[in-house]
Structures are given as C-alpha cells and as structure tokens.
C-alpha cells in the first residue's frame, strides 16, 4: 500500500475514531491500523503535516502584521483586527483557527506516542518516532501557550470526552512542553541526513526548549539550553542573508526546523501575497529602525542622507524589503509598484532582484519552505539570556557579533552596560527576524507592547495608513475562540473578553 494512503488513514484515525464501524473491512480502524512500522511512519508523517496549518504559509508574516513592522490592508487572517485592538472571541480568523489546528496536531502526536510503542518493530526506530512526536506535541502546545496561556492538557489519543476538559494553567503547559522536549532531546540524533530532510533533531528540541525558557524569563536555563545547541556544532550561520531564504539553499546549515513544501501537492501563495498583492507591506516605522553601516541609527549617523535614505544602510534592509528606486524581478520599483506603503516584502519570495520571473512561473504557487527555527535565533537567544543572567560578558558579544558580521554590520561597541546591551539585542532581534513572526512575541514578553503596539503606522511619505491599539489589561493574551467555548462549557474565557 502506498504511504500516501496510509497517511490518509492516519489523518482520519487521529480525529474521528468515535465514528468508525466496529469491524469494517474496507478501511483501517484503531484496532487494525497501528500494526506495522509502515503504519508508524505514516502516523508520524500525519503529525508533521499539521505544521502547515499551525506555522506554515503566511502565518509568520501574519504575526508581524500585528506589529508596526507590516501593514495588512486586506486584514490577512484577522491580523488587522488584533493590531487595531478590535478582535474578540469570534471575529478573527487566526484566533479561531489556531486553537483547532493545534489540537489536531496534538491529537495526531498523541496517537503516535501512545500507539507506536505497541508495534513490533525495530526498537531504535520506534524510540526515534516517539521522540519526534514528543517534539511535535510540545511545538503544537507552544502555539497555544504563547497566545492563550493555559489550555486543556491532553496526552491521550483523541476521544470525544476530551472536548469537555477544563483549562490547565500556563505553568502546567510549560512544564509539560519542557518534559516532552527533554525526553525527545535524549533520543533525537545530533544531525539529520539528507534523506530525512525536514525531520527534527536534537538541536531542534534544544532550540525550542531555549525559546520557551526565554519567553518565560528563565534566563540562566535559556542560556544553558541555547549554549547546548551551539556546542553541538550541528548548525552554522549561512553566509548570505538573502540566500538563506532562497529555494536553491533550502535545508542549509542555518535551518533547524522548517515547514516542508513540494509542488504540486504542497504549496502556498506567499510569492503573490508578499509581492503583487502587497498584503504584508513593510512600514516606514520598520524602515527607520534599520541602522547605517556604521552601526548608528538614522538620527545619530552622519552617513544618513534623507535625500538618499537607502544608501549606507544595514544590508538586511535591501535583502528584506523592496523599496522605491531599487530593482526587483528585473524591473525598476516606482512609487506605484507597492501602493500600500511604498514598500514590498522580498524576504520569503522566490524572486530575485535583477532577474525576471521565470517563464511559466505561476505567481500564486510557491513551494519555498517556511523557516521556523534557525541558528541565528539560537545565538541571539543565548546573547539575551546570558546578558540578563550575567551581564554583557564576552560570550554575549561573541554571539550577537556573529549575527551582525554575517549581515555585514560592525561589531557592537565594547563597554556596554547591561541595559544598553539589552536595547541593542532587542533591536537586533527585530531586524534579523523581520517577517518570521517573532517580534510580536518579543514585545509581549518584554512588556513593551503597551508602547510598541500602540503606535500608528505610516507609509514612505509619513502618512498614517493604520491606527493601532493595544490594551495591556487584555491583549497580552488572545481570547479563547467562541467555537471552543460553545462546544465545551468547562472552558473559562481570558480576562476582559466576551464569550
């Protein structure tokens, strides 16, 4: 039987076991499916496939559109609702979909973790499959924990009764995620072979652990986890920032985890959304944050010329943003090319500056993998956590300067105080990870969202294109979706939201 058919069976089994016939002969059931190594592999593939719904496509860019980095005129997935503070439990796409999609992935991972140990197969392979599923379960719970806080903790294969469970605390979810990641890291290989491209490794588990600890403000532990990834030496910065995100360099040394796409079965539309549709338009707010090549801001650098604002800038600007006066897809960019703000999003597209779109290219189809965790994040996680735990010691400088050197920027000046280093690192994270969905979570955990998410965003002429609002008494968490509340009376809503 083809693997694709087995994967389909695993998809069905992970979500609707209550509706299966007792002894059907034309399809798999819970009692007939989990029997062979092939079944185990198919179940794991089904668990991986939920990454597309939870983290893939334009979801990272959607999170940036909640921040002053981007403006989404067409309210992609409801990003505009959240950015303007008009979201509630029923009116915003990503709030409604994230809950169900994450629990779909959790259910599939739970089935693998609970069913595969009973299969007669190679024990080493069995343990590896379970470890990968443990990572995936933690990653899906992370997608919930980071926006809703506490959620129901489910560790068994899907059954109807799980739909009536109350919420566990955020602390309980965090503890369980870290336990899953520790168990996975103990089994996962240090590196993944080319034939297993897209699967998780020890570095993946440790990097996610470091991110969770960083978000929780556990500085010493976050530094230790990220240092463990560094010490593995399984990953390294890719030398070219723009090339890092191009098709020809997929799976390069910097990538720790990405969502895998492959035409014709698995594709997304980021090329057309980032470019022609201008759905995620970089703002002047973001452009002004890019330093000059001397490492100074536009306010402080003698290199800045308002008449030539894109000269002598951090090279990541031209490698991330399409701006007026530049070339893209072999054509000059003019004021009307990207009408929303005057800027387009280059990073995440397959197009090149001085080459026309390839003949036959369908603009709304791309199979460029979406990177979720990369080595630069590990370095900056280590730098931030170590600075908070021990101050701006030499290892902090070393980590952040590696990222800046790759970008073509000078090293940070010596002698920074802890507070000054903190601000430098926050700037570095914002610029390095534009469009990757991290800045929204950064400003929330830094508790600067009250300021950062309460500013209007402007176009290249300085005209306000969107009014933003963030309520600190409410918006650090999202509302539990109305659809979940209606089907589960035991769920409590987050403070200051309706049901």
Protein architecture, described:
By secondary structure, this protein is mainly α. Among the domains are: 3-187 and 477-487, Serine Threonine Protein Phosphatase 5, Tetratricopeptide repeat (Alpha Horseshoe); 269-360, no CATH class. It has 20 helices and ten strands. Helix 3 (37-49) packs parallel to helix 8 (123-148), helix 8 runs antiparallel to helix 9 and helix 10 (202-215) runs antiparallel to helix 11. The longest helix has 26 residues, at 123-148. It is globular. Mean pLDDT is 94; it is low at 16-21.
CATH domain class name of one domain: Mainly Alpha
Q: Report the C-alpha radius of gyration, rounded.
A: 23 Å
Instruction: Note the overall shape.
Output: globular
Largest sheet: 2 strands, antiparallel
Average pLDDT, rounded to a whole number, is: 94
* Gross CATH architecture of one domain: Alpha Horseshoe
State the helicity in percent bands.
Answer: 40-55%
- Structural class comes to mainly alpha
Number of strands: 10
The H/E string reads: HHHHHEHHHHHHEHEHHEEEEEHHHHHEEH
Spatial arrangement of strands, main beta sheet? 1-3
Low-confidence stretches: 16-21
CATH-defined fold name of one domain: Serine Threonine Protein Phosphatase 5, Tetratricopeptide repeat
Question: How many alpha or pi helices?
Answer: 20
Strand content: 5-15%
Q: How far is the first residue's CA from the last residue's CA?
A: 46 Å
